[in-house]
Amino acid sequence: MILLCILILLALCGPAHGTCGQTCGLRPMGSTLSSTRVVGGSDVMPGTGAWAGIASIRCYWNPPVSVHVCGGTLINSHWLLSAAHCFVNRTNPLSEWAVVFGATSLAQTGPDVEVRRIKRLIIHEEYVPHLEFNDMALVELDRPVRCRSNIQTACLPGPSVKLSEMKNCYVAGWGDRIVKSSGRDILQQAKVQYVNNQICNSSEWLDGYIYDFNVCAGQGGIGTCQGDSGGPLVCEEKRAGFFWQIGVTSWGIGCARPKRPSVFMSTQYYYNWIWKMMGRKPVTPTVTPAPGPVPTYTAAPQPTVTQPTQPCPFPREKLKQFFIMLKDLLQYLKGKLF
């Protein structure tokens, strides 16, 4: 009888999970092997709790086959932060997208992996495609995510947080180089060099293309690449023992070229916009006790502006096949005409 009661309670209550937002900014770690996706990066091993806030945003082209499009980060149980350009040129309905949490491999499944559909997409109202101004997007999930050791939220710095000394910074993602040399599709991470905006915007670097809403990081041989968009740039808060997400991966000139760092949207710059669009006050995070003040958050008003859904990028492989076929056709016609 006692066993039956316990089973009934478990069935009613379900497994025990923490509340999303009470713990955030877990340390990136658990990597061992080299890779060529996040350029100069290494594999993130499963079961370590590393990068617990990251998610894979996917399109379904021929169900049940899904295609990884971009990364994103969980900022509370209902919302994901990503880049606006990830949703440009979508050809399938938003209902056919999925967001996968808790996986380090794109093929990973099981009880530790959570899959959610997209209920609503909010693109920044002043987003400028191609120039990538205000390249920010929020995704509202169809159901809340249950947090646990491998699924946690990112810590976003408020306007009052001082981010002057950014030394231990990392990026992560499932992106690809133009020539893909590994088919394992394992989450990659890399330690990157933070580059202040004055240097990043100088004539020898990105020469006037950097604005107050940008953050730069990366160096020759190490940085983000295609497919890493929407993912996080995190830097250590030394006083409290956790990591701030200071950027959302946006764009770059090539991949990890010298004096061509990756460019991110500043989460601190868009802090008020993020919480305004969600229409809620974030939960104050629990961090490792240490000297100095613990970060706090301010209340946010109800959102007033939402953007219509935008399209999903066409798979790179299909585009490559198309251009190869077009090239062959042009060569055939040239031979016929001349």
TrEMBL record:
Residues 38-279 form the Peptidase S1 domain. Residues 1-18 form the signal peptide. One of its GO terms (biological process) is acrosome reaction. One of its GO terms (molecular function) is serine-type endopeptidase activity. Its EC number is 3.4.21.10. InterPro entries: Peptidase_S1_PA (IPR009003), Peptidase_S1_PA_chymotrypsin (IPR043504), Peptidase_S1A (IPR001314), Trypsin_dom (IPR001254), TRYPSIN_HIS (IPR018114), TRYPSIN_SER (IPR033116). Keywords: Disulfide bond, Hydrolase, Protease, Serine protease, Signal. It catalyses: Preferential cleavage: Arg-|-Xaa, Lys-|-Xaa. Gene3D superfamilies: Trypsin-like serine proteases (2.40.10.10). PROSITE patterns: TRYPSIN_DOM, TRYPSIN_HIS, TRYPSIN_SER. SMART domains: Tryp_SPc. This is Acrosin. The gene is LOC102036222.
